[in-house]
Amino acid sequence: MNLALWIGQWVLGAALAIAGVFKLTLPAGQAMETFPWSVDHPTLFVVTSTLDALGGLGLLLPALTRVFPWLTWMAAMGVGALMAGAAVFHLLRGEASEIVPNIVLAAIAAFIAWGRLRRAPIVRRLPAPKPFAGPLPLARPPAGMRITQLPTGTYATPAAFAVRGGSIRDRRDFASTAVLIEHPQGDLLIDAGFGRDAEAHIASLPSFRRSAHTLNPTASAQLDVHGYDRSRLRGVLVTHTHWDHVSGLDSLDVPVWINADELAYARAAKDDRVFMTVAEHHELRTYRFDGPAYLGFPASHDFYGDGSVVIVPAAGHTTGSVVVFVATPDSRRYAFIGDLTWQLDGIVSRVERPLLMQRLADSDAGQVRDDLVRILAIADRYQVVPAHDARGYEGIPVLAARKDEA
């Protein structure tokens, strides 16, 4: 199917572009002889010839350059309409024998429009960065350190809104998962997932941000059911303060670790006040990026001082959002990237959020892009975990499974 799309697109695009230029450059006398209808409609001849050339270029150039690739399916729709109009024109002139090419070309154009809109959209990819070749930052994770995941639920989003090039008919389940880091110096949760009042939190959002969802036990409930010692928990480190990362704070009576920029962002937020509601009675502990550059990011904060949990600024999705790098005693390395990309497609296919979602969701789309490229450079050496893609958490044991094995 994809091969047929490529062949149809290139053949039709080249044919139209060549035909349009050919007709526009024909001497007037030769044009009238070759296309008799142009005698009665000379202006229409020029206009349709120009549209042929533009339609052909529209099928070819966006695909070649991947600049505004959505113009491909729009050009195909325009060509289809042009060919349908040409068929009607010839029928009205009693030239029924002339409409067969128009019908064939209209059908090919419709196939390309459908294919590039639904089946195999052409997506502009980020440039492939040079892989990070140096030694990874020094880390000395202690022997007793462990990492587990606590899935607290999902909500459904059309793939077309989740990742550039996604289909409107494809649904993606956005994970809301807390990650527990057990460390001899005290444990830490990365994000809090959905809380016990998640339904109320969702209802408080603008209507366009609400979606079908499934709620699992909260992170707090999961800790309790497995006999976790709450006195070990030093707090929750939030990657940023959007509701689906902090809702679970409503049932976790622990400090919240946050940087000053993100706290300012949360205080100024108008359509997502969940963090300010659930954090009202929490101790807020701010940290500074007081460490050196780290894996291309300009600064860092070493949470435990042993390189096992390092926070770096990634202030594009929100003005204080962060990436959390984790190194474990078994030599595994993780990059919890929050919402730099919502789905692993952003890493595997090197694509950004859809343009509309960038406008709605990101404080600085350019900064998101720069930070995503930094992550792409280390993707072969770290397990990259977008917060909302369950596939990113594969291999990280679920708390219940690990406790049961113990």
Summarize this structure as a short list of keywords or feature phrases.
406 residues; alpha/beta; Metallo-beta-lactamase, Chain A; 2 domains; seven-stranded mixed beta sheet; five-stranded mixed beta sheet; 12 strands; disordered C terminus
Largest sheet: 7 strands, mixed
Helical run tally: 15
The overall strand count is 12
The strand line-up of the biggest sheet is: 4-1-2-3-5-6-7
CATH architecture of the largest domain: 4-Layer Sandwich
Whole-number tally of structural domains: 2
Q: What is the oligomeric state here?
A: single chain
Helical proportion, percent range: 40-55%
User: Which class best fits the helix and strand makeup?
Assistant: alpha/beta
Shape: elongated
Written as H for each helix and E for each strand, in order along the chain, the element string is HHHHHEHEEHEHEHEHHEEEEEHHHEH
Q: Which CATH class of the largest domain?
A: Alpha Beta
Report the CATH topology name of the largest domain.
Metallo-beta-lactamase, Chain A
Spans of at least 5 consecutive residues with low confidence: 401-406
**β content, as a range?**
15-25%
Whole-number mean pLDDT: 92
Q: Gap between N and C termini, in Å?
A: 50 Å
- Computed CA radius of gyration, to the nearest angstrom: 28 Å
Classified in CATH, the superfamily of the largest domain is Ribonuclease Z/Hydroxyacylglutathione hydrolase-like
